[in-house]
Specification:
The complex is a heterodimer of chains A (109) and B (117). Chain A has 109 residues and is an all-beta fold. Chain A contains no helices and nine strands. Chain A is globular and about 45 Å long. Chain A starts with 8 loop residues before the first strand and ends with a strand. Chain B is globular. Chain B contains no helices and eleven strands. The chains are: A mainly beta (109), B mainly beta (117). The interface between A and B is medium-sized, with 27 and 19 residues.
């Protein structure tokens, strides 16, 4: 089965750049989506289809996807960005399924 | 868009439960829907998918044969019938709207299912 691998945690200082990785076999051939989840809240999509930013999501959030790694980059990190971040793909084959990465806890120092 | 789950409660192992999800703010009958769960302190796990017309349904391996997803387009609602519940099914269950090419653009706040004796 297809597996998405994320680092469990990442720390960044305010104003700096945080890059969260999502590894998967030939993930560059898939459409990757990213969610932000703050404590006691539902997930919110921050990047869809590798690079698209939904309305209302700051331009500081960007995505890329190539080879075996997709990335979510948060520029000029703010305290309000502290959250769990999940990557996700939709596997379409004989059996369709949603697949999430294990999540990355971003701590703003 | 509003997505509101209900029906979560404490249930004994081996028991059954049906979750409901009521939606508004979009044309429900045009969209595929999903259930996603999150065990306490853990990550997100996709559970099940149903197409707009209920003609195609998928389940995760962990729930296949025990859970049944359904929907009623006249009531703008989707359901998850859960049977043979296990302790490991304990989780916050989210209802989520699916959009092509396969992500979840609207989520409810979730309903908590606790399986314990």
């Amino acid at each position: 089965s297809y597996v998405l691998t994320q680092p469990p945690s990442l720390a960044a200082a305010p104003g700096k750049t945080a890059t969260i990785t999502c590894g998967g076999n030939n993930i560059g051939s898939k459409s990757v989506h990213w969610y932000q989840q703050k404590p006691s809240q539902a997930p919110v999509v921050v990047i869809s289809k590798n690079t698209d930013r939904p309305s209302g999501i700051p331009e500081r959030f960007s995505g890329a996807n190539s080879g075996n790694t997709a990335t979510l980059t948060i520029s000029r990190v703010e305290a309000g960005d502290e959250a769990d971040y999940y990557c996700q793909v939709w596997h379409s084959g004989s059996d369709h399924r949603g697949i999430f990465g294990g999540g990355t806890k971003l701590t703003v120092l | 868009v509003q997505v509101v789950e209900s029906g979560g409660t404490l249930v004994q192992p081996g028991g059954s439960l049906t979750l409901s999800c009521a939606v508004s703010g979009f044309t429900f009958s045009d969209y595929n829907m999903n259930w996603v769960r999150q065990a306490p302190g853990k990550g997100l796990e996709w559970v099940s998918y149903i197409t707009s017309g209920s003609d195609t349904i998928f389940y995760s391996d962990s729930v296949r044969g025990r859970f049944t997803i359904s929907r009623d387009n006249t009531k703008n609602s989707v359901f998850l019938r859960m049977t043979s519940l296990r302790v490991e099914d304990t989780a916050l269950y989210y209802c989520a709207k699916w959009v092509a090419p396969g992500y979840f653009d609207s989520w409810g706040q979730g309903t908590l299912v606790t399986v314990s004796s």
